[in-house]
Each structure stands twice: as structure tokens, then as C-alpha cells.
Amino acid sequence: MIILTDKAVKKVKGLFEKEPDTAALRLAVKNVGCAGFSYDLKFDSNIDPKMDIKFDEKGVPMVVDKKSLLYVSGTTIDFNDSLMQGGFKFQNPIATDTCSCGSSFAT
Is 3.30.70.270 the CATH number for 3-95? Predict the structure, then answer.
């Protein structure tokens, strides 16, 4: 479904320690952004078993709503800790176009 690199796993697990009441890392897609869709990555405890798919990726509990999964299935999430290009990076195999900052995409 969603792949986390080792760097992303390390970063997320470190952030989880600061969010003890969080159930999962949620990846969603919003219909905004300069390329059409935007990634939304956040911690979430509100999981709807009818609308959400919950899974484990390398020890990280993750959740994606069914609609977003259509747009992010197979996406690899990496983490870069450099000063200029730092943050989570998304490599989406179904994206046909991305914006220059990499936070939005088109299919």
C-alpha cells in the first residue's frame, strides 16, 4: 500500500513518542495544490472502520481513507533532514505531474 523508507520510519517513530495518544499516521489527499492534489500527513486517533484502511508499515501504524488510497497506493514516503530540502518527500507511481516543491501532484 504505502512504503516508508528507513529514514521516514525513524522520523515518524521519534514523532510518535511526542504524541502518546495517537493511534496512527494518516496519509490523505486533498483536492488543492498547484498541481491538483495535495498530500496531507498527520497523526490521528479518529479511525473509521467503514471508511479507513489501517495497516502496519515497518512497525508504524498507518491509516488511509479509501478514497485517498486510490491516489496514493504504492507511494513511497521518504524523509530528508537537510536544511534546504528537508521534510517528508513523496514518490507516487501514479502521479503524472508534480509541483516544484513536491507537495502536490496530478494524476
Answer: no
